[in-house]
Amino acid sequence: MAETKREIERKYEAGPGGKLPSLAKVAGVSSVIDKGITELDAVYYDTEDLRLAASSRTLRRRTGGDDAGWHLKLPVSTGVRDEVHAPLSAAVPRVLAGLVRSRVRERQLVPVVRLRSERDLRHLVDAAGALLAEVSIDAVQAERLTEGGGSTAWTEIEVELADGVDPAFLDKVEKRLRKAGIEPATSASKLARALAETGLAPIEPIAPAKPVSAGEHVLAYVRAQRDALVALDPAVRQDQPDSVHQMRVATRRMRSAFRSYGKILDRTVTDPIGEELKWLAGELGLDRDREVLTERIQTAVAELPRALTAGPVRTRLRIWSAARRSGTKRHVTAVLDGKRYLALLDTLDALLAEPPVLPAAGKAPAGVLAKAVLRDHRKLADHIRRALDVPSSPERDLEMHEARKKAKRTRYAAELATPALGKPAKAMASYAKSLQGLLGEHQDSVMCREALREIAAQASAAGENSFTYGLLYGREERAAADCERDLPALSPQEHPEYASGLHEVK
């Protein structure tokens, strides 16, 4: 079983003779406790082309010390990493291999570097004896394990903040170290330094140039969504809040870009990729819609006076919610480990490496991007017009749902165009987001009414009172009617000024 710990630390070049200045003078420190010397032996794993190192991730198997085992370090921000720990085993633990799957794909993880360290450890504690930080002097010997060999050695100082301590404490320690002539390390990690000094530094990805042409703007947006998919993969596997939703959003944004900007990227190439993205979003969201509906109904029930809650409503709702769960986490993990998903990531890499651009891609962004946004805006207006022309019925609900999808596409198209077109595109994105929210509320009401009918039927079959479900159904009908009433005031016909700015750009 893996455990995750937030690690906040700073590294420094060792001073003359590898000695520390007195840290008892650091504000807040009552005493410095010598914890002795520990021998650490760590083997770092990566692909042959060092994909983990290139993305600032480290995977190691370490013995010695009080946290022997497998450690995967995932970057959070400068000096902050999440360390996922798993017990010692001969092979890379499956859970850790999964957390780097989106980076390594089908490539094998092999030993690349061995680091043996002699760690001289001290604890900085406050007046109550509580730990503030661990400070160590590490004498490191590094050996490359891949073809060509190579070795190096150095000494460094590491300061790791204790759990729950204000990160500003590290500034106080650094001030004292700098005063003693000790400077921050130039390498972000021991592994990075070992790789660099043994001639095995990873190939750093070339940062894309600032987009100029229409095609470059579209590709920059697609690349950002591909990067989001890869980066969110471990968060989804760890079941972190909102991670599944954000991963689905990345798939939708990419699909939207392919469809909205079909004059720039060849849709004969991107349409099949879009279908795979749609598949992935569907797999990720198998239980998401039911969770959203359950939360909506639970909230509505909680707001009812007790006298209007007839029968075992909460119990019935829990039974309904659990009935069709697919084992979300296990299912999603299987999808992310599957060949189809990994092939999709490889396909996206290939598309960005050799994009299927059309002639319009080389043009200035103003006209090309503005036309695409306006085209989506016109489709949105058509669907809203049809929805308002249809009497209240399932047909209106369907048109409202289609309008919602067009509002979302218009929003994403405008967001993509904003870096190039500025305020007109930003205003359109904001407007489309407002429409999307209103239409989304209407769709949630439609889905909620369907769920309430199903729950009421189950309750009735079990001999339970179904009064409360009918009451909630009526409230959802009223919520949908409110959305329909508000829609004309937000419709594109009523706000042509949002398109006028883009017409001027075009």
Automatic annotation (TrEMBL):
<dbReference type="InterPro" id="IPR007899">
    <property type="entry name" value="CHAD_dom"/>
</dbReference>
<feature type="domain" description="CYTH">
    <location>
        <begin position="5"/>
        <end position="198"/>
    </location>
</feature>
<dbReference type="InterPro" id="IPR023577">
    <property type="entry name" value="CYTH_domain"/>
</dbReference>
<protein>
    <submittedName>
        <fullName>CYTH and CHAD domain-containing protein</fullName>
    </submittedName>
</protein>
<feature type="region of interest" description="Disordered">
    <location>
        <begin position="484"/>
        <end position="506"/>
    </location>
</feature>
<dbReference type="Pfam" id="PF05235">
    <property type="entry name" value="CHAD"/>
</dbReference>
<dbReference type="InterPro" id="IPR038186">
    <property type="entry name" value="CHAD_dom_sf"/>
</dbReference>
<dbReference type="Pfam" id="PF01928">
    <property type="entry name" value="CYTH"/>
</dbReference>
<dbReference type="InterPro" id="IPR033469">
    <property type="entry name" value="CYTH-like_dom_sf"/>
</dbReference>
<feature type="domain" description="CHAD">
    <location>
        <begin position="211"/>
        <end position="497"/>
    </location>
</feature>
